Amino acid sequence: MNNIAGSNIIRFIILLLVQVVICNHINFFGYVNPYIYIIFIFLFPIREERLILLIVSFMLGLLVDVFSDSGGVHAAAAVSLAYIRPVLLKSSYGMLYEHQSIKFNSTDIGSLITYISLGTVIHHFIMFSLETFNITHILLVLKKTLFSSIFTIILSVLIIILFSRKRK
């Protein structure tokens, strides 16, 4: 097992445990929850096969669903995020993505925030829409999406910045 696979396995386990043990029990005002497990999908290596990302994202979402008793909404939202990830990378990083030369620990902070923000809002909107599954509650879905996204974006960017190693 090489270094990249090992670090991804460790990242998978740590983010899953932090999500299940800590973040699932945070509930501000009844609708603001952080979902930091999606950091794994954001930081998954670009050069890896896309099918592997989809399968691993499904497993990650399914495990969060099992521990949260949420009926598959995390799995669906995680797979959706993994599927749309190339579009997000291209819109946030442009030519760096075309040449597959993105290094998340040394990229521009503005591009990183754009990438994390777009992906988080899409993930949360899909997840809360499936959770509510009623068009008459669209304002609740939008409110939960907005506030949980803000909280998740702030935590995700801080975690990525704090735990990234600058290699020179």
Automatic annotation (TrEMBL):
Chief place of localization: membrane
InterPro entries noted in UniProt: Cell_shape_determining_MreD
Keywords tagged on the record: Cell membrane, Cell shape, Membrane, Transmembrane, Transmembrane helix
Transmembrane segments: 12-44, 51-67, 73-89, 109-126, 146-164
GO biological process: regulation of cell shape
UniProt entry tagged with the keyword Membrane: yes
Protein localization: Cell membrane
Membrane topology recorded in Swiss-Prot or TrEMBL: Multi-pass membrane protein
Cellular component terms (Gene Ontology): plasma membrane
Signal sequence, renumbered to the chain: none
NCBIfam families, A to Z: shape_MreD (TIGR03426)
Protein family per UniProt: Belongs to the MreD family.
Protein name per Swiss-Prot or TrEMBL: Rod shape-determining protein MreD
Source organism per UniProt: Winogradskyella epiphytica
Lineage: Bacteria, Pseudomonadati, Bacteroidota, Flavobacteriia, Flavobacteriales
